[in-house]
């Protein structure tokens, strides 16, 4: 259908578009939802669909229903069948003495074989795959027949077992070689998982575009590392070593993402990278003025004195950025026309930037025409290791999964009956000059949410405690409220959307109302607000369903990477989430929570 003429190829392209597929393996991975098997049955399997050779013995109409009795070959047994929905052609088709291959579910009633509404099939011995797609059966089948063949599959880099498996799925010789107990056999599933991972990685890899770097960077980090008041953790050292390799390349500018939980020590990795870039310049963009300022202060504190650091923010600068070795700033950097060219461009907390700002950074990095600055991004949103492996086809990914200090946070689910104890605990913390954060699901009352809102409960807290502050995502005075709370507050009432940009070192207790309604990533972010300064802290998950398995599992770990993995597991099991987590790639066969080994194998096949 598609091979012969040019316009047929065009037609095939249109169909690919309709199917939203982009590679040959995408097509191969569209598998039949069922098979129509017209292989003649060799025995009588009751309850199963079978195909039998038969001759019509007699025909009658009883109560409006067509009744046809057959004699089966070669056994000579009788089989009676009833047609509940008849059309004129049924009467023409099943005339006495006519010969058929009938197909239907075989039953037995009082010793008589029966089949209701059998089909008369024209050709026996054929297994026809049935595809459920947006295309017509004939169209999808034509595509498969045209493109799915051994040669094309080998060309995609599959091995003989994988090719054979796909060929069996699309062109089966028997159903038994595919199915066991009505589902695909384990060995087939294993191969399909691999092909799915391999296809995904291959497509991503095809999208990666690399440029030569402006400069190969070889600056020494030892003076900086030796001067630190602590030893870098093994993971910090590993990431720094990876970056060292990236930056030393001239043929390819670095494109790396460093993912590490809040407090995992990413700033040290940033500073080490600045050292490697010397004598060339580095730029770092941060999402808020407060963060930029904090990074500036840390850079001044930890980098050797001869490294010139400057800060660029809207309206105010520190140091002369035209002279600096290391320029730190907010997105105000993107609008500075006389910003010097940098050999290394970094972005901190990249998850908090919009796409546009990230693209702005790409522009900063591509001032050198065909050559590009090295780019390193930092993210504090832990992702499952499997996701990192997948993403790394597009850009290199490093994970920092441990923190230099274990935070001491006790997490517990509580419900209504625990409320008096909670009040006591809150009073104790406040008496210690610590602070409390209470997160409500909504600002205003809603019949859809079975918990109190911020507005409904503030009166209660204000009557019981002094220095209660209230803010939420849409609050215009949020920054001021937070700053004032940091100095004077006891209790802060807020909603989940509140972005606490500043660190609140005295915060030791957080209550999350209606916790089961939130995704694990959100809960993790919220819990990360307490215990910033190593103070013993508590996270109470207030819920009408305190036995919620997700909450219980969450209570057992504070490691963001474990939580990302847990999140995947619960997502697979269909738990409802609040949508704050990026919805990952959906796979038909692969289980991102379990199939790390298979993804690794697919990566190895594709090579570096
Ligand atoms: P992140 O940016 O990943 O959230 P930071 O870089 O701000 O984390 O580090 C958190 C804290 O840990 C900082 O006070 C930092 O000085 C400290 N720190 C970083 N690395 C180490 C280390 N190897 N040993 C001890 N403390 C460290
Ligand atoms: Mg940081």
Automatic annotation (TrEMBL):
SMART domains: DEXDc, HELICc. InterPro entries: DEAD/DEAH_box_helicase_dom, Helicase_ATP-bd, Helicase_C-like, NA-bd_OB-fold, P-loop_NTPase, RecG/Mfd. CDD domains: RecG_wedge_OBF. Residues 247-400 form the Helicase ATP-binding domain. Its EC number is 3.6.4.12. One of its GO terms (molecular function) is hydrolase activity. Residues 418-574 form the Helicase C-terminal domain. The gene is recG. It is an enzyme of class 3 (hydrolase). Pfam families: DEAD, Helicase_C. PANTHER family: ATP-DEPENDENT DNA HELICASE HOMOLOG RECG, CHLOROPLASTIC. This is ATP-dependent DNA helicase RecG. The lineage of its organism: Bacteria, Pseudomonadati, Campylobacterota, Epsilonproteobacteria, Campylobacterales. SUPFAM superfamilies: Nucleic acid-binding proteins, P-loop containing nucleoside triphosphate hydrolases. NCBIfam families: PRK10917.2-3. Keywords: ATP-binding, DNA damage, DNA repair, DNA-binding, Helicase, Hydrolase, Nucleotide-binding.
